[in-house]
């Protein structure tokens, strides 16, 4: 057999596991459906970024078409298109995980060593307040006036060189100055140096397994088929990718919880229109997050954020001249998003063609959380002189979690605490698909920590 | 997108984006031309749904489209919401991505920059290039990945047109011509052949082969229309010659360059990917790759795998679509046995024990010269070397005298200037085989007429003529594959034919003499190829199929037939997309039986009027449903 381990998905989890395995001499092959880019080749126009970095040409929708799901499809996965916000989970999140899953190590203490190890794999900085842009100023000022607490974001970045006039909104389509710690700059690159193999534009469509081996097959973007064999398989294709692959192979016969327990931290961006130039697109895209214990307890958080014109145009309501009138305010817009810590699980299903359908709605509790967040944003904008507040209609789901929830009970979870699928000896998952519920905190750092933990357990069996 | 859909797109575009001042209407932007940038990456069903919707919008009056969009904007019902988001998504993406000529983003005062300039990330480019098992050199891969890569390569080769493939072949011909001396040097290092042998038996025939491919492939592979019988009137019958997939080529050490490029190019022009394993004795490491690459072969079109028979076994277990093997009978049988487990078609070009028959009517001078060259070229290491020489009694003494003087005049050595007749042996193992066979013959009474100076070890075996051998001796049963020529005699035609056919092999033969006689004899020989009044020359014409009978192998390559042996032959019968019910389909009724029976009678008794009348009746009747 050519490989010890095949990893499906070159996102955050796939890259970290590839790194921790390949640097220990394990023969690893990573298969990624998306393309590979370097800092020189990332798409520059929003149309190309949407088309080339995400599944479905930009967005996928939940079945009721109320939430736009942003699912990266690129070597580096979410780390290419995210804002690289690095936060450990607190005990509020982990206690709830432990309660749901019965997994003993879900606690700040249980994970701290793994968080520490993950943090060492990249450069993490607090975003300096000194470089904040007009959008961040309004955020900070509004928080102060309303008596809320905020603090600078902690971000995986090495040197954004704002003094050179860089507008980091562009790094939503891949950081061209290798400051953002996307995995092609960090763990994935080191994995490749250690001899890890990688095939991009290779979409895995089928998984066959026996006691001793796994075989994955699919098609390249050229339409040509491929298939590879290994001793063990790591599913790192995210909540929807992993669920879809396993559901289309009917793993749900043995894993009844497969596809259930899906969460997205639904986000709603709200624009405040001002009479002065805000230029939310200039300089650092984000500087602050809410750090208000009240918000945490109420189940939402706020960030100062912005998006490039196409995304904003999708959020601005209306059409025709009315829509254009709002778009003309682009540089006088401030923008804050509320991210809901959703309590109501969605579900991923697959039709006979192998296409995924995501059932995901907000229940009363979640809607209340959203409303509380919108109220806070409204107060912030009003207190800082916004002449109009424009809530974006469409929800956004970009923390795609669950579907292969971890737990001790095979009836109400999919992945066991040893990161193997219940009842399977050689299929593993450690990405956001194993989250038992929504933590309400950005997931990236925890995906890294769990992946490192999974890799270390795996190494003992290789 | 079709014209109607574009019309629909512009219609809905102008409703959503009517423009104002510095902002153009959507239909003024020509942004619809940029649609593939987005659509190409969408899911197929989303894309077809969108195109359908745009077609509908194209047909509807503007106010109805406006009404639909207005209704959709309320967001009641998931379908309306999907339409709303989808239509806005596509149009806003086109309009606000900064890909227009009118300057929409500048009009919004929106511009972003990254001013920091970093050098190009060459390291990552290289890491990515070297990390892909499907594109990395075969030398770094195991058999599984090589085969995987070949299967993927096949998908791209098959889509190349034949004329594109032949452009590569033409470039290859020029590369071989340009690098001729360098190639000959490399071959000589590994084979110790005489330089002229390399030129005439590796370079020259290879160029002939490439020229043949350039001239003949288009015709050989084009769809062939064959007759369709009268009973199937109105239908069309064709044979399509299509690629097979991955061809595994396993070649011997005697012509390491020719036997590499020839089958590789046969596989390539017919649309197949090739995995090629040279003999471990003459790998010509890197040479074949470099020649192919210079000609424009992609690295995965023909992958070269070095190693011994175990590598070949592993590759066969990975089920190539065809195996093309040239080599020994013993190995050929093993390969066929292994391939039989997977029913992989095999083509086996195996050994020979080629007879040369010289009749009294032959030109003695010429046939002696032919015998010497046919027996000793390439030191006899050819499957079509003369291994048995039969001369008619009446001319035997004269022939023998001339033969010996010719052989004694031969010059030996591994030369650099083309001034030697015969080089050394390639393989130590083969030297031992030759020594054993000669010793066996001598022990049983054969006599060495030349070559007595050989110590039975030296790789530079001199040309050896043996007299007094019989068919009972191993030397006349087993393949010698060395510069040894057993000289024998025959009395008449019948004996010549009997002797020539008395062998387990049947690769080729040469027959010398007056034309009517030698053609008559040639018909009686059990063999795959015959050179008449010449030697080892039938394989020189690349339009002639080549291959053996009996233990000499299975299948034919070269020529149109040979090219097609690298093809899947697909038989296609095409009927019209009509409502017609065929006469032989259900329902069967007594009446139909009667009509069919009459039709059969008239058709095969060739009573055409009856056939026409019955055929018409049956045709009409068959369109009706059963009525009991």
Please write the CATH class name of the largest domain in chain A: Alpha Beta
What is the arithmetic mean of pLDDT of chain B?
94
Main sheet: strands, sense, barrel of chain A: 7 strands, mixed
Sketch the major β-sheet of chain B.
7 strands, mixed
SS-derived structural category of chain A: alpha/beta
CATH topology heading of the largest domain in chain A: FAD/NAD(P)-binding domain
Strand segment count of chain A: 20
Q: Which percent bin holds the helix content of chain B?
A: 40-55%
Which outline of chain A best applies?
globular
Just name the CATH architecture of the largest domain in chain B: 3-Layer(aba) Sandwich
Low-confidence stretches of chain A: none
The share of residues in extended strands of chain B comes to 5-15%
CATH superfamily of the largest domain in chain B: Aldehyde Dehydrogenase, Chain A, domain 1
What radius of gyration of chain A results from the CA coordinates? Answer: 21 Å
Oligomer: heterodimer
Widest sheet, order of strands of chain B:
10-11-12-9-8-14-15
CATH topology group of the largest domain in chain B? Aldehyde Dehydrogenase, Chain A, domain 1
How does CATH name the architecture of the largest domain in chain A? 3-Layer(bba) Sandwich
Q: How does this structure look, described?
A:
The complex is a heterodimer of chains A (462) and B (628). Helix content of chain A is 29%, strand content 20%. With 462 residues, chain A is of the alpha/beta class. Chain A has two domains: 1-37 and 87-121 and 183-257 and 403-462, FAD/NAD(P)-binding domain; 125-172 and 264-398, 2-Layer Sandwich (Cholesterol Oxidase, domain 2), CATH 3.30.410. In chain A, strand 1, helix 1 (12-22) and strand 2 form a beta-alpha-beta unit. Chain A is globular, with a radius of gyration of 21 Å. The two termini of chain A are 13 Å apart. The mean pLDDT of chain A is 96. With 628 residues, chain B is α/β, with parallel strands linked by helices. In chain B, the strands form four sheets. In chain B, strands 10-11-12-9-8-14-15 form a seven-stranded mixed sheet, sandwiched between helices. Chain B has four domains: 3-107, no CATH class; 141-349, Aldehyde Dehydrogenase, Chain A, domain 1 (3-Layer(aba) Sandwich); 354-550, Aldehyde Dehydrogenase, Chain A, domain 2, CATH 3.40.309; 579-628. Chains A and B meet through helix 2, helix 7, strand 8, strand 11 and helix 10 of A and helix 2, helix 5, helix 7 and helix 8 of B.
């Amino acid at each position: 057999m050519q490989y010890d381990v095949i990893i499906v998905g070159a996102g955050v989890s796939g890259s970290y596991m590839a790194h921790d395995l390949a640097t220990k001499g394990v023969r690893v092959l990573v298969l990624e459906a998306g393309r590979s880019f370097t800092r020189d080749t990332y798409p520059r126009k929003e149309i190309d970024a949407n088309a080339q970095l995400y599944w479905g040409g930009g967005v996928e929708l939940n079945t009721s078409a109320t939430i736009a799901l942003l699912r990266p499809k690129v070597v580096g996965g979410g780390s290419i298109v995210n804002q690289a916000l690095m936060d450990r989970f607190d005990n509020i999140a982990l206690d709830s995980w432990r309660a749901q899953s019965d997994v003993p190590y879900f606690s700040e203490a249980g994970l701290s060593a793994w968080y520490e190890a993950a943090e060492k794999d990249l450069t993490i900085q607090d975003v300096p307040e000194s470089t904040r842009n007009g959008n961040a100023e309004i955020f900070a000022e509004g928080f102060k006036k309303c008596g809320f607490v905020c603090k600078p974001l902690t971000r995986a970045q090495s040197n954004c060189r704002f003094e050179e006039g860089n507008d980091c909104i562009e790094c939503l389509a891949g950081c061209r100055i290798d400051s953002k710690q996307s995995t092609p700059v960090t763990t994935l690159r080191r994995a490749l140096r250690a001899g890890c193999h990688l095939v991009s534009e290779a979409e895995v469509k089928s998984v066959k397994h026996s006691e001793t081996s796994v075989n994955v097959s699919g098609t390249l973007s050229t339409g040509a088929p491929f298939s590879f064999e290994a001793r063990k398989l790591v599913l790192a294709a995210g909540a929807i990718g992993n669920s879809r692959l396993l559901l289309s192979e009917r793993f749900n016969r043995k894993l009844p919880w497969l596809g259930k327990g899906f969460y997205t931290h639904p986000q709603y961006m709200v624009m405040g229109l001002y009479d002065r130039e805000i230029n939310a697109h200039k300089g650092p895209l984000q500087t602050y997050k809410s750090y208000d214990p009240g918000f945490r307890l109420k189940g939402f958080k706020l960030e100062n954020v912005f998006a490039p014109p196409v995304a904003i145009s999708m959020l601005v309501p209306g059409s025709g001249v009315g829509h254009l009138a709002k778009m003309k305010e682009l540089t006088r817009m401030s923008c804050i998003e509320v991210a809901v810590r959703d309590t109501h699980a969605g579900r991923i299903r697959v039709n006979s063609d192998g296409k995924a359908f995501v059932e995901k709605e907000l229940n009363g509790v979640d809607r209340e959380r959203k409303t509380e967040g919108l109220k806070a944003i409204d107060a912030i904008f009003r207190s800082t002189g916004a002449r109009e507040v424009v809530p974006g209609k469409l929800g956004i789901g970009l923390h795609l979690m669950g579907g292969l929830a971890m737990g001790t009970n095979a009836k109400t979870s999919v992945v066991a605490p040893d990161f193997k699928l219940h009842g399977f000896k050689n299929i593993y998952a450690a990405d956001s698909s194993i989250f038992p519920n929504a933590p309400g905190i950005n997931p990236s750092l925890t995906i890294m920590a769990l992946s490192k933990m999974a890799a270390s357990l795996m190494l003992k069996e290789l | 997108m079709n014209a109607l859909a574009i019309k629909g797109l512009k219609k809905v575009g102008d409703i959503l984006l009517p423009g104002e001042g510095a902002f153009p209407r959507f239909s003024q932007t020509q942004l619809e031309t940029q649609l593939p940038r987005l659509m190409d990456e969408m899911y197929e069903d989303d894309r077809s749904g969108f195109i359908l919707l745009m077609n509908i919008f194209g047909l509807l009056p503007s106010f109805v489209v406006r009404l639909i969009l207005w209704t959709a904007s309320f967001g009641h019902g998931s379908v309306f919401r999907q339409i709303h988001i989808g239509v806005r998504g596509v149009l806003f993406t086109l309009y606000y991505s900064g890909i227009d000529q009118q300057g929409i983003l500048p009009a919004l005062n929106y511009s972003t920059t990254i001013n920091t300039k970093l050098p190009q990330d060459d390291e990552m480019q290289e890491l990515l290039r070297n990390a892909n098992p499907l594109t990395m050199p075969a030398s770094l891969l195991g058999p599984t990945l090589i085969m995987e890569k070949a299967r993927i390569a096949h998908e791209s080769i098959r889509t190349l047109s034949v004329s594109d493939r032949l452009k590569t072949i033409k470039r290859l011909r020029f590369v071989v011509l340009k690098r001729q001396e360098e190639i000959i040097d490399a071959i000589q290092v590994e084979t110790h052949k005489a330089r002229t042998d390399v030129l005439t038996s590796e370079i020259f025939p290879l160029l002939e082969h490439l020229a043949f491919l350039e001239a003949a492939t288009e015709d050989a592979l084009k769809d062939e229309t064959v007759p369709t019988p009268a009973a199937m009137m109105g239908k069309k019958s064709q044979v399509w010659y299509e690629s097979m997939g991955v061809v595994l080529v396993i070649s011997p050490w005697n012509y390491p360059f020719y036997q590499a490029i020839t089958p590789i190019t046969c596989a390539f022009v017919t649309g197949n990917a090739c995995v090629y394993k040279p003999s471990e004795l003459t790998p010509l490491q890197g040479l074949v790759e470099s020649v192919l690459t210079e000609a424009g072969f992609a690295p995965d079109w023909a992958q070269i795998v070095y190693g011994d028979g175990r590598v070949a076994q592993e590759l066969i277990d990975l089920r190539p679509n065809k195996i093309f093997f040239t080599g020994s009978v013993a190995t050929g049988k093993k390969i066929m046995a292994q391939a039989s487990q997977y029913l992989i078609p095999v083509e086996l070009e195996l050994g020979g024990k080629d007879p040369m028959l010289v009749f009294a009517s032959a030109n003695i001078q010429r046939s002696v010269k032919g015998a010497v060259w046919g027996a000793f070229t390439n030191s006899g290491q050819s499957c079509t070397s003369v291994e048995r020489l039969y001369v008619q009694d009446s001319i035997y003494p004269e022939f023998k005298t001339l033969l010996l003087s010719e052989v004694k005049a031969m010059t030996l050595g591994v030369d650099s200037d083309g001034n030697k007749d015969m080089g050394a042996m390639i393989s130590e193992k083969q030297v031992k085989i030759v020594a054993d066979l000669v010793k066996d013959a001598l022990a049983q009474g054969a006599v060495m007429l030349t070559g007595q100076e050989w110590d039975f070890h030296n790789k530079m075996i001199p040309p050896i003529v043996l007299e007094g051998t019989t068919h009972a001796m191993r030397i006349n049963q087993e393949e010698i594959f060395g510069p040894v020529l057993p000289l024998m005699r025959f009395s008449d035609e019948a004996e010549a034919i009997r002797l020539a056919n008395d062998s387990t092999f049947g690769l080729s033969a040469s027959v010398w003499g007056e034309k009517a006689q030698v053609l008559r004899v040639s018909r009686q020989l059990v063999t795959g190829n015959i050179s008449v009044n010449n030697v080892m020359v039938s394989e020189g014409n690349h339009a002639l199929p080549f291959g053996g009978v009996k233990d000499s192998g299975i299948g034919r390559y070269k020529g149109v037939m040979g090219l097609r042996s690298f093809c899947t032959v697909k038989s296609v019968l095409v009927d019209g997309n009509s409502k017609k019910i065929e006469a032989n389909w259900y329902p069967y009724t007594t009446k139909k039986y009667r009509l069919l029976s009459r039709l059969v009678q008239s058709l095969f008794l060739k009573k055409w009027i009856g056939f026409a009348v019955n055929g018409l009746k049956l045709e009409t009747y068959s369109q009706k449903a059963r009525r009991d």
